[in-house]
Prior knowledge:
Oligomer: heterodimer
Structural class of chain A: mainly alpha
Number of helices of chain A: 15
Radius of gyration of chain B: 24 Å
Helix content of chain A: over 70%
Strand content of chain B: 25-35%
CATH topology of the largest domain in chain A: ABC transporter involved in vitamin B12 uptake, BtuC
Strand order of the largest sheet of chain B: 6-9-10-3-11-12
Structural class of chain B: alpha/beta
Strand content of chain A: under 5%
CATH class of the largest domain in chain B: Alpha Beta
CATH topology of the largest domain in chain B: Rossmann fold
Distance between the termini of chain B: 54 Å
Number of strands of chain B: 24
Bound molecules: adenosine-5'-triphosphate, magnesium ion
Shape of chain B: globular
CATH superfamily of the largest domain in chain B: P-loop containing nucleotide triphosphate hydrolases
Amino acid sequence: MNLRFPLQNLAMPLALLGIGAFFALQEAAFLGPRNLTQLLVEFSITGTLALGMFMILLTGQIDLSVGSGVGLIGGIAAVLVFHHGWPAPLALAIALAAALVLWTAMGTLIVRQRIPSFIITLGGLLIFKGLFWLVIANATVPVSRGDEDNLYALLTTYYLPARAGLALAALVAAAMAWLGWRARRARTAAGLPVRSAAREALIRVATAAGIVGLALLCNASRGVPLSLLLLAGTGGAVYFLSQHTPFGRYLYAIGGNEEAAVLSGIPVARVLVGAYMLMGVTVALTGFLTTAYSGASTTTVGDLMELDAIAACVIGGTALRGGRGTVAGVVFGALIMATLLNGMTLLAVSPEIKFVARGVVLTLAVWVDVKLGRK
Amino acid sequence: MNPILQARHLTKRFPGVTALRDVAFDLQPGEVHAVCGENGAGKSTLIKLLAGIHPHGSYEGELRVGGRVAAFRSVREAEAAGIAVITQEFALVEELSVAENLFLGRPPRRGLRVDWPELHRRAASLLKGFGLDLPPQTPVHALGIGQKQLVEIARAVDKQSRVLVLDEPTAALPASEVGVLLDHLRRLRAGGTSCIYISHKLDEVMAIADRITVLRDGATVATRDRAATTIPEIIRHMVGREISDLYPRRRDAAPAGSDLPPHPRPEHPPARLETGGREPLLEVRGLAVARTRGGPAFLQDLSFAVHPGEVLGFGGLMGAGRTELLLHLFGAWGHRLRGEVVLRGAPYPAPTPRRSIERGLVLASEDRRRHGLVLGQSVGFNLSLSSLGQFTRAPGRLDRPAEHRRNQALFDSLRIKAPGQQTPVGGLSGGNQQKVVLGKALMTEPAVVLLDEPTRGIDVGAKLEVYALVNRLTAEGRAVILVSSELPELMGMSDRIIMIAAGRIGGEFERGDFSQEALLAAAMGRTAA
Ligand SMILES: Nc1ncnc2c1ncn2[C@@H]1O[C@H](COP(=O)(O)OP(=O)(O)OP(=O)(O)O)[C@@H](O)[C@H]1O
Ligand SMILES: [Mg+2]
């Protein structure tokens, strides 16, 4: 364990560095601020969906329907805006409500009828895909009318002004340092183990520097993308839920031993349905982001995104059989996936090869997961 | 004679724990060698080295089998050398039938195909030999824990190994089946098989062992011939002190002589217990329960009550329905056909585990690995799992420092032997896992505690602590329902005993009328005088 831990912790940054270096060597533009900002938007999209998937996987369940769902929900909002002329905020709210209804229904079916989630969500994959194509009538539906900028389109095209971005970054860095310091004091008071003061300080400084550095990097191009803020918000929320609420504990407990969870008085059914509802929310968010990013809803939006999300979770150390995983790992896994896809697009890798590469990455990640799970 | 198995200078370290230090151990042909020691003394670890579960290279020291140095890298290699092990944790495939499990990996064949009739015939005769009246087609998941244990033993015995290693084989067995098992071992010994036998039940050890080795804190403290030692001497070696009263039930005051720290109070205690009066905390009238909706009654005509400060014992044979009764009261088993349950003065018609815990009824289950613990998580995670409500602050945030303090108080007062509450519970010794299960139940601040075999697999000292805990609970005005297969324990700790026979009450006894004969007769369904 003493040996494995640092190795595991280092494996991901090293992999990311390796992948980045490879693309940078192939194509210098990869490291340009323009591409990096684009990468950040793509990362926000993959990451948001992966965060929802994370909570599902923690319980030992799975959701294969999210890719089609992303297309469908984004499509509903686009149709409402473009064909029916609804104001974007209202259209987004309605589409979000639709996602909540669909995912609550799936969660309830899984829990009440005891049908394996694999089957239900596989059905969902096909049904949502069909509904999606019906909703957009197999056409291309832009997310805004004419050239006007609405909230929908701005989701991936709005960048914070340089100063605002920097100020926000400084604020977030300071808040994180303060919260971290407060948590440390509480832990010390309770006799919980804490990192050594030097280590703690190093980590705080590094985090703050990382956040501010990221803002500076974004400012070198167009500024901090709005979508990145959405990802940060989602990540913060999922982190709080999973680590600081009974709900989060229950996710881990159900994935670890469902029978024991029931006998411990955990409302297993409610927790599972709750996890699917949260998945619905992240599907809607991702649907809006990815549709906005492609500028219009088309039949291929969301294709195979469920696999990217699962891969991101598993690469980040989430166990497919449940009970193990961290938010930080998932976010990192999503960054790796987004970098891979972005790099391949930049190098104009053919779609055929892209499919193969994605498959290889997913298989490798699951293989490692199985290996570790046996330990 | 040359020992068939010899271990020297065995040392095994886990992160934060040295489980074995410089242990020497040998086993003669045709000998039953018992290993005793407290929870966490290293007994299971020792046999895991012998059995290849902890492979060669993960420990220091030398192992010889039949005079030659052995370096097992896997269980299979150990089995090939003739060492068969029954571990504390079951190794049966739940989804397969009993027969398939018995011959897993070595089914009788006809040509290339499995010879099913032959397999079922041999399985049936093997089961009969162990007094198990089961169709061999029964899936293992439908068996009770005691039956699983017997199937596991039957499987190992049938492999005709030179060395049979049994880790607490009788922890889940009632007295009648223990006799069957010991007879089997004697027969095997007469045939030249050697056996390593781990048990916390010292009378059993004295009945079967030729030699006894005692481990304490990972080191060998004594190896004695059975004839030259006594139970008190073994206990003294195990715990390093004398223990006089094995079942210290105290009816009235708080346990005076107990050296336990005071019961930790939660920071936000739930609704106070109603005090005084002889109103029962739990009353059951005319209860009948079926396994499933529409099935025949499995439990019937059950009526009883348990009052504040009382320990109500349930005894009976394996499969009589005691565990099912507790699970049903708690809301985790069966379909209620008739009868009513009154909990703390209010009818309680539709129990679920969650509601039960909210209303102050809690169960510490007998099958800790399946029902009790999330093995991959830490001790602390498991301790507070049923009580997170106590630490939830607006708007739904967990107060983790408060939780940690409460966990630590329980961790200390139960004397859980582990580096800390962050240790994964799966790495704890069997008895310490049991303590975590109890701790989880106690943290909910229950009014009525259902204890199903609470001392299974725990050592003499820890048993005393559990008994002291029971005394403390009743002194605080709570009620305890105790299910136990060990009659001495049941008689020692209960104020009243109800024997269950085939799902019905076979007899009810006040403390003054306890006698082994009368209880056993009632368990068999014969009416006692
Ligand atoms: N896989 C493991 N990882 C970490 N620690 C372990 C592991 N297995 C055992 N230990 C530790 O080694 C020590 C000895 O455990 P062992 O299971 O051998 O005890 P035991 O004598 O069999 O106890 P019991 O009577 O409770 O079964 C304990 O402190 C235990 O926590
Ligand atoms: Mg053990």
